[in-house]
Amino acid sequence: MLFDCHLHCQFSPDGMMTMEQAKSQAGRLGLGLCVTEHMDCEAPSTADFTFDVDRYFAAGGGVRSQHFLLGVELGLQLGPVVEINRNLASDPRFDFVLGSVHVVGGVDLAGCEYQGRHDARQSMRHYLATATANVAAQPFIDSFAHIDYPLRYDQHLASVFEFNDFRNEFAELFAIMVANDVCLEINTRRLSHRTWREFCEIYRFFAVCGGQAVTLGSDAHGQAQIGRNFDLAVELAGAAGLSICHFASRRPVIDRPA
Fold first, then answer.
1. Which of 40-44, 66-70, 123-127 has the lowest mean pLDDT?
2. Which of 6, 62, 80, 132 would staple 173 via disulfide (CB 3.0–4.6 Å)?
């Protein structure tokens, strides 16, 4: 069974489904799930992207099972957030700790404030350098999320992106990840036949750098998004020579070997 290891329910401010609704949809699709509610401490946002951990586990206790797991998406930043995240990741109740970079230079990548501030290619280099520094400082994550995050919001960058322009930056990030046994997520939000070559170059290079496994994540905020484009994700993992896994009690479980 494949697991969708990146989705948001009622404990994320942008989640539009309950855990029960997510579990019901996953059952119809034949998928396992790991909920990863947002925990972006000190994020520059008007919304509160944190949650009460005890309330989260209390609410999830009634639906938690072998195929419905409880994780967290930690927003990675340097400074005081490192120790906050380290303490959160040490909580044995979490099955899975997903790490992500949403903030670069104190600015939310999803906001208009960041777009256009730098040359598009320089913005991507800044993101990858920020990701490298954050994973090096917070190697306790299990998987790194949405490697293509800036391309979601910067349409000019998406139109000019060429993997070879950033090979060195990807190599530095992947070296840190491999050294610390951090998986790379295949985030399926942008994955399509149109973006196939871009994704394939990145994930094949992760394998060349020594990466062995990926997690799959739809980044769903509503039921209809659960498991989206997983057929392409499975094909991508196979083309890159990477195993597909999920985490239970912070231990990797291979769902489909390379």
1. 40-44
2. 132
